[in-house]
């Protein structure tokens, strides 16, 4: 059969797979719906009778049933592989389906198909992958999960780490979190697991092992108590640095509290004013709706100004930037709260000795503020002052944690429809863990 090599090349199979015959299946009349390659593992290459989980040669158990695997498309047509899936009895794993050279154990897709899915999933959009490859999004989740499992078994991302950052990212409502560890030197995400808290973080240190844990010099994290206590217990030699990104996030929370207080006060005032006006000129009717009062307008601006106040000023659109100016000019309290946040950002831009000096001034000033949320923020900053100063001294990047956090939140939305947090972790690691994915058939 001279054209076997053509089919072999099309399906990305090597000589460990024997193609027995090729069938064309019609769907609608006159239209080939599927190309099916009927295959088996090569006996000559010793590929038969191996445990699907460990690859050990094992005695046959039964003939199993006929199974099919989706492969890459053959031109415009779907291509499938079909083969018997006999079971073997492995000394270690018991009765299990025999290994096949063209697919991962338990997968319904071939290795080349998996590789194509993973490559596309990290480079393009959800709808592109789904439509181009004609697969469900949850299937993409299962594929990248097993691709990452194989890659992570081959590479050791935890090797040689000295400075790490710990972060937690919410990935679902009801307080579902991923704990993420990044390497400050390489900028990579080196570890991620579902869960939050000391127990989850402990599994990271278990995997890192005592020697590599002892080699850690700096750990940056937000001020969560469980992180501090776990790091102090497991890596007492490492300098604990407060993550600037999280400290600035506290400040934006304080601003938002002030914004809500201002909005409520304005609204109450506007409502009273309106009620008085209505009493004087009569209630508005559906035919003759009275325009909003200026104060009602302003209250609405406060209600909608959240994003303008919370984003970094450099990232604002022109509209948001104007909203910000208007709002802070209209409210001295909000103006003050906003200034405290911006000054805190300057502390982290300054770093080193200068950073410490400005931090000191900031604390003194914030301690005298009449705004209760700023007082509270000040107390939190003072409580972890030592680790903020460590962060200023050792200059661990704010940008890395911030940008990783932002990207992971994007992947979290993209992962909507995946069935497990492991698939989300695979998406994160394939994107941010630094492996280079290649398309099947390319080197
Ligand atoms: Zn086995």
UniProtKB/TrEMBL annotation:
Pfam families: DDE_Tnp_ISL3, HTH_Tnp_ISL3, Zn_ribbon_ISL3. Residues 274-297 are annotated as: Disordered. Residues 50-93 form the Transposase IS204/IS1001/IS1096/IS1165 zinc-finger domain. Residues 164-426 form the Transposase IS204/IS1001/IS1096/IS1165 DDE domain. Residues 99-148 form the Transposase IS204/IS1001/IS1096/IS1165 helix-turn-helix domain. This is Transposase. It comes from Saccharopolyspora spinosa.
């Amino acid at each position: 059969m001279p054209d076997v090599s053509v089919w072999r090349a099309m399906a990305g199979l090597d000589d460990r797979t024997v193609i027995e015959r090729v069938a064309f299946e019609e769907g609608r009349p006159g239209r080939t719906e599927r190309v099916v390659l009927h295959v088996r593992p090569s006996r000559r290459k010793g590929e038969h009778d191996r445990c699907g989980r460990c690859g050990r040669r094992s005695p046959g158990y039964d003939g199993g049933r006929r199974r099919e695997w989706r492969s890459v498309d053959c031109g415009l047509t779907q291509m499938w592989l079909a083969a018997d899936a006999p079971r073997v009895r492995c000394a270690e794993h018991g009765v299990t389906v025999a290994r096949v050279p063209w697919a991962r154990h338990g997968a319904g897709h071939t290795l080349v198909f998996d590789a194509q899915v993973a490559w596309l999933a990290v480079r393009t959009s959800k709808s592109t992958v789904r439509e181009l490859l004609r697969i469900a999004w949850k299937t993409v989740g299962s594929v990248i999960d097993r691709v990452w499992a194989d890659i992570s078994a081959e590479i050791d991302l935890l090797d040689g780490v000295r400075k790490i950052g710990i972060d937690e990212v919410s990935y679902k409502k009801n307080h579902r979190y991923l704990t993420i560890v990044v390497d400050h030197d390489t900028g990579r995400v080196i570890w991620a697991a579902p869960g939050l808290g000391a127990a989850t973080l402990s599994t990271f240190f278990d995997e890192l092992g005592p020697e590599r844990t002892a080699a850690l010099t700096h750990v940056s994290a937000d001020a969560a108590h469980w992180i501090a206590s776990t790091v102090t217990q497991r890596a007492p030699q490492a300098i604990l640095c407060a993550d600037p990104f999280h400290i600035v996030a506290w400040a934006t929370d304080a601003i938002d509290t002030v914004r809500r207080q201002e909005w409520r006060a304005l609204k109450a005032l506007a409502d009273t004013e309106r009620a008085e006006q209505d009493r004087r000129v009569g209630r508005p009717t559906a035919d003759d709706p009275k325009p909003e009062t200026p104060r009602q307008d302003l209250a609405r601006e406060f209600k909608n100004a959240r994003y303008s106040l919370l984003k970094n000023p450099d990232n604002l659109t022109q509209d948001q930037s104007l909203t910000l100016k208007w709002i802070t000019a209209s409210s001295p309290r909000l103006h003050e709260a906003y200034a405290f946040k911006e000054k805190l950002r300057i502390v982290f831009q300054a770093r080193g000795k200068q950073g410490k000096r400005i931090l000191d001034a900031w604390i003194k000033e914030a301690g005298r503020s009449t705004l209760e949320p700023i007082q509270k923020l000040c107390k939190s900053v003072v409580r972890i002052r030592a680790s903020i100063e460590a962060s200023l001294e050792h200059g661990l990047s704010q940008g890395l944690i911030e940008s990783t956090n932002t990207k992971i939140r994007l992947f979290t939305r993209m992962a909507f429809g995946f069935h497990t947090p492991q698939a989300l972790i695979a998406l994160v690691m394939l994107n941010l863990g630094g492996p280079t994915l290649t398309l099947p058939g390319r080197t």
